[in-house]
Design a protein that fits this description.
The protein is an alpha/beta fold. The protein has 20 helices and 22 strands. α9 packs parallel to α11. It holds the Pfam family Formyl_trans_C.
């Protein structure tokens, strides 16, 4: 089928549907929902068999849905309607939720139902559920919708609230008044639900030291339950997060945003302690975590950005960075953690990343907030390069990457620094930089990428600016292996593979690795690759072309799209 995606942005759900339906053989083009006339023009140019709306913030114009079959991907069960579907599901502590594909008509979310797929709810943030359970269910529901459209005689189900099987209902947009935390009354579990239901948009408004902030990314602080303090007060900090006392425990909150920033403040998310600064005087640093947390096993239930555990001859290094972004400080900490892990008695080092993301490269929010964004960009990319080099130079271990979540830009090439790269089959990779203001890129990509896929395919990947599924990346040689199944099964498969490698003739594998690295270094040193890449990056950061700085500003400030780039809207390229 010819399918036109009409979407507010090319977000994680849209990208996953794009790669999955493309693999099914469908012809797909994308148009950002800018205004009615642009949508009408896109439809006239492409003449699709179907319009798919995976992520919209306004209604499709009647001039379009009355002429073309338009399918809305709604993140709710049958009968659920309204713009805050997952928010309300989390707040009501629903045990099951779903995704419904319905046909657009004059009434919001009330069209005929083509497919609906349900899933068990998990105690997680809205953004985590959206990237995982919602996205998986959406892929199944869209495929089922297409199959039914191609089945002669199939008729979609009309929405009928008299039907006892229709469990959903209309919900209005959730407001901040619905999200308010009452620190004296709400339990830790309720506080977590309220913050999780607002992550990553819009956050929960709360007052700290006389100022209003939006709170994001919360975790239970079970190990902090014995601390005293007034509910709602800051009782500790760790890894730039703050620990807020609840009436029956405490929660970690990693990021804040000022509600009404002044001229010296920023209206986007940053690490909590960075935003609060002076307000934190006297707040204790909880359980002072070693600067290099890779010397001993650490409790997986305790929230930390970086943690390490060891099983026999295998070391597992987890790094859970919010939204996958890695600033200069985090890169340096992780590099030191890798260096110390390599000193342990292990044969295999597995870099696990976080459940939500592997890595998305340099930290654009931190760069935008710096006194000199160009200088901070330079510091950040050099810290990323140092981390990559630390992984490449691992003569005594086989290094593995286990991608549990998506990876983009420099995060992809950080993964390629390892000897083996394994990914979950739901992972989407964006192995390119150019969509961020024509960045050239670094992280030794000019060495690592052609080595895996060849010079021509490397050029193609870097130029096309499109996402790649894990299975497609595996077929191209970009990554080594793909595991399917639930998240827990993926972790078990990674552990089994790591143990098999550790139990094998590791000395022979290490000799081959050393021989290859020596040969590569003699042909062209890593320092030369780095110098060549950074010469181009310096022009991006400090040169006369402001494209990178403009693109970064638009990205960080979440400015509405003014047009759809031609590499997505191929109907416009024609």
């Amino acid at each position: 089928m010819r399918i036109l995606f009409l979407t507010h942005s090319f977000n994680s759900l849209s990208q996953r549907l794009f790669v999955e339906l493309g693999r099914d053989g469908h012809d797909i083009s994308i148009e950002f929902d800018i205004n009615d006339s642009v949508t009408e023009q896109a439809v006239e140019l492409y003449k699709p068999d179907m319009i798919l709306a995976p992520f919209l913030k306004r209604a499709i114009p009647e001039s379009v849905w009355s002429q073309y079959r338009c399918i809305i991907v709604h993140p709710g069960i049958v009968g659920d309607r309204g713009p805050s579907s997952v928010d309300w599901a989390i707040m009501r502590n629903e045990q099951r939720w779903g995704v419904t594909c319905l046909e657009a008509n004059a009434e919001m979310d009330a069209g005929d139902i083509w497919a609906s797929v349900e899933f068990p709810m998990r105690a997680a943030s809205k953004s985590s559920l959206y990237r995982n359970e919602v996205t998986d269910a959406a892929v199944k529901a869209v495929r089922l919708t297409i199959e039914r459209m191609q089945t002669e005689g199939y008729q979609p189900q009309a929405l009928d609230y008299a039907n006892p099987d229709v469990q959903g209902q209309w919900h209005c947009l959730m407001k901040q008044s619905d999200r308010v935390i009452d620190w004296q009354v709400d339990s830790t579990e309720v506080v977590l639900r309220k913050i999780r239901a607002a992550d990553s948009v819009p956050g929960v408004k709360d007052e700290i030291a006389g100022r209003e902030y939006y709170l994001y990314n919360a975790f239970a602080a079970e190990e902090m339950g014995d601390l005293t303090g007034e509910p709602g007060s800051i009782v500790a900090t760790r890894d730039r997060a703050i620990c807020l006392k609840t009436r029956d425990g405490a929660v970690w909150v990693t990021h804040l945003k000022v509600v009404k920033p002044d001229e010296q403040e920023f209206g986007f998310k940053l690490p909590a302690t960075q935003v609060l600064a002076a307000q934190l005087q006297g707040a204790p640093e909880a359980y002072r975590v070693p600067e290099i947390p890779a010397t001993e096993d650490q409790d997986e239930q305790v929230w930390q950005e970086i943690r390490y555990r060891q099983e026999g001859r295998v070391g597992y290094l987890h790094f859970d960075f919010y939204n996958g972004a890695m600033d200069t400080y985090q890169c340096k900490r992780l590099q030191r953690a890798v260096a110390l892990a390599k000193q342990q008695e292990i044969s295999v080092l597995v870099l696990m990343g976080g459940r939500e993301f592997w890595s998305n490269g340099i930290h654009l929010n931190q760069i935008e907030a710096a006194n000199s964004p160009a200088e901070e960009s330079w510091q950040n990319i050099n810290a990323m390069n140092d981390l990559c080099r630390e992984i490449i130079d691992s003569p005594d271990q086989i290094t593995m990457v286990a991608m549990q979540g998506n990876a983009g830009a420099g995060g992809v090439f950080l993964a390629l620094a390892a000897d083996r790269v394994i990914a979950h089959d739901k992972v989407v990779l964006n192995p390119h930089y150019k969509s961020m203001g024509n960045l050239y890129g670094s992280e030794y990509w000019t060495y690592l990428l052609p080595k895996r896929v060849g010079e021509e395919q490397a050029k193609t990947l870097m130029q096309n600016r499109l996402p790649v599924s894990a299975k497609s990346a595996n077929a191209q040689g970009l990554i080594d292996q793909v595991f399917e199944g639930p998240h827990e099964a993926f972790i078990q498969q990674v552990r089994q593979l790591a143990e098999e490698i550790a139990d094998s003739d590791i000395s022979s594998a290490l000799r081959d690795k050393h021989k290859q690295r020596t040969s590569d270094e003699q042909a062209k040193s890593l320092q030369i690759y780095r110098d060549e890449e950074l010469a181009q990056m310096k022009l991006n950061f400090f040169g006369f072309d402001p494209s990178y700085h403009v693109a970064r500003y638009h990205f960080v400030e979440k400015l509405p799209k003014a047009r759809t780039p031609v590499y997505l809207a191929k109907h416009r390229a024609l």
